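Objective 1b: paired records.
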Amino acid sequence: MHQTVSIDMEKDLLEANRKLAEENHKKLRGMGVFSIDVLGSIGSGKTRLIERMILDLTEMGRPCGAILGDVTGDDDYRRICGLNVPAFNLNTGKECHLDAHLTGHAISDMELENIDVLFIENVGNLVCPADFPLGTDRRIVVISVTEGDDMIRKHPLIFREADIIVVNKKDLADIMEVDIDRIVSDAKRIRPDSPVILTDARKGEGIGELIDALNIPRS
């Protein structure tokens, strides 16, 4: 009996999140904003990738903004603010992921009129965010070679939900004795229709290819 109630409550929660995500997407697209949910473990390089994409997109005449999700703190938020773009710090407290409800409040509190591309950096986690779409146009999942070459096999669900898979810190593969080809093979097996982009965010390598893979429509 208790298990049935728990399952029903979980279904209701996920359905409510799905409806709110649809509302978020409708609002963002109605304002001409293309949105990207960036997921990955702590230390995978999500923030650095977002910084690099913002810099390149800004040079291309595509104004950007960002919502930075974390359990607590504002370190990533302050980094993005240093790029002089609109940013919002979103702390979840005890929750290990963003959801459509929290994201919707952040969207409402931001001035989106002059933003073409909105990045949403999810809480660092490869498990919890998988079931909670935020209403974005794209989902990027980032893995670093420093996490090992078995992470996709250990966490297949979140990669099945990825529109783009990024393998970051490729320059450290030899040092870490990690087989990048194995990571790419696992990614293609789990999500064969999604591009796999190899990046070195610190040096800016692969960022142009990643932006192209996003297929951002012209405003």
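Objective 1b, second protein:
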Amino acid sequence: MRKRLDLVEVAARAARRAARFLRAVRRPTPEAWTEKSRHDFATDADRRAETLIGEVLTSAVPGSVVIGEELSPTTPRGDGVAWIVDPLDGTTNFLHGYPQYAVSIAAVHDGVLAAAVVHDVPRGLVYRAAGGRGAWLGRTRLAVSGIGDPRRALFGTGFPFRDLQLLEPYLRQFAAITRAASGIRRAGSAALDLADLAAGRFDGFWEPALAPWDVAAGVLLVREAGGTVTTFDGSDDVLHHGSIVAGNPAMHRWLIDLLGSA
């Protein structure tokens, strides 16, 4: 069995290749954007980045499969190594020159999250995690915050911009958390939001509708940093299209209870 740390190194190499490409490429003009669905854009930059990532991953781990947002959307199989890839998490930010976007790569081995890399492209920061080995930023081991009082807590979130039927219940959740918490931030990259949670910058995070490539790497970062990640109904199985709530253990429990009543 391939060691989990080896998978982390492969993912980091692939993410670094894509990040170099994204930093060098000229931002596409609006005429070149493809609208996959309402408010959800893609460009040749996304697709080219995913191709570059896939070449590295499948060459380094023969027989592995790539599950990517742009070129190969599917679901993880039960055996072997599957890579869950978002070549450009925060595409809208990238298109507008807003410096909050990342390359996100996770490895699932025999159905279990085993390795993760989130590469913050504008800042050149690389977050890594290996199952059972912790989460790291460079040589600094990451740990979720110890804040247990929502009045002192800062939360990250994402708007349900694809499925607007979720907007009304989301707004009720937003209002309830706003009344109780220190603050809420929405920066537009779930991978980086979860990295911020793992690093103790956020105390909690929630979003009602995300895809597996949006969250897979970030989920392992948070869990390996001591945090908790589930769906809104408390299930640990978050690698599907659906909801996510994450936090340090105290804030996760508080969020679950509040979201259930909002």
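The mean pLDDT is 92. Residues 150-261 form a domain with the D-Maltodextrin-Binding Protein; domain 2 fold (CATH 3.40.190.80).
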